[in-house]
């Protein structure tokens, strides 16, 4: 099952810095096991552009869609057997302690045909 893992900052990171995992080790291990399909850091929120259409009018604005203290700073696409495995992969990521990780499964269409 594929999961999008959003890598986010957090206003209350773990204060115990002993034994924090190394991101390069995490990436190499999960790439080698075929669990990390793709991932990257994102540019700062100042580089974001928000696009909306309202009543047929295009609205484009600079910056992220919401005013929040926590921001998405990266992502990883994971291939895991189930949510439990995805949680274990996320648990070992350094941002699980410095920030937060949101796991979201990719939408899967029903196998049954639609009328």
Question: Can you lay out the helices and strands and say which pair or pack?
Answer:
Layout: E1 2-8, H1 23-32, E2 36-41, E3 49-54, E4 57-62, E5 72-79, H2 83-91, H3 95-98, E6 100-105
Antiparallel strand pairs: 1-5, 1-6, 2-5, 3-4
Task: Outline the structure in words.
The structure is a single chain. The protein has 115 residues and is of the alpha+beta class. The protein has one domain: 2-Layer Sandwich (Alpha-Beta Plaits). The chain is built from three helices and six strands. It has helices at 23-32, 83-91, 95-98, and strands at 2-8, 36-41, 49-54, 57-62, 72-79, 100-105. The strands form two sheets. A four-stranded antiparallel sheet has the order 2-5-1-6. A two-stranded antiparallel sheet has the order 3-4. The mean pLDDT is 89.
Spatial strand order of the main sheet: 2-5-1-6
SSE succession? EHEEEEHHE
Kindly name the structural category: alpha+beta
CATH superfamily caption: Dimeric alpha+beta barrel
**What is the overall shape?**
globular
Mean pLDDT: 89
Measured as a percent range, the helix fraction is 10-25%
CATH class descriptor name: Alpha Beta
- The fraction of residues assigned to DSSP E strands is 25-35%
Number of domains: 1
- What is the CATH architecture assignment? 2-Layer Sandwich
Assembly classification: single chain
- Count, helices: 3
Largest sheet: 4 strands, antiparallel
Q: Within the CATH hierarchy, at the fold level, what is the topology?
A: Alpha-Beta Plaits
What is the C-alpha radius of gyration, as a whole number of Å? 17 Å
């Amino acid at each position: 099952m594929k999961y999008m893992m959003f890598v986010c900052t957090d206003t209350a990171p773990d204060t115990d810095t002993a034994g924090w995992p190394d991101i390069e080790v995490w990436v190499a291990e999960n790439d080698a096991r075929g669990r990390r399909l793709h991932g990257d850091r994102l540019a700062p929120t100042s580089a974001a552009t928000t696009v909306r259409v309202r009543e047929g009018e295009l609205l484009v604005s600079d910056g992220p869609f919401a005013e929040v203290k926590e921001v998405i700073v990266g992502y990883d696409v994971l291939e895991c057997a189930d949510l439990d495995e995805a949680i274990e992969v996320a648990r070992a990521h350094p941002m699980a302690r410095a920030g937060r990780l949101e796991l979201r499964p990719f939408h899967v269409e029903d196998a049954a045909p639609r009328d």
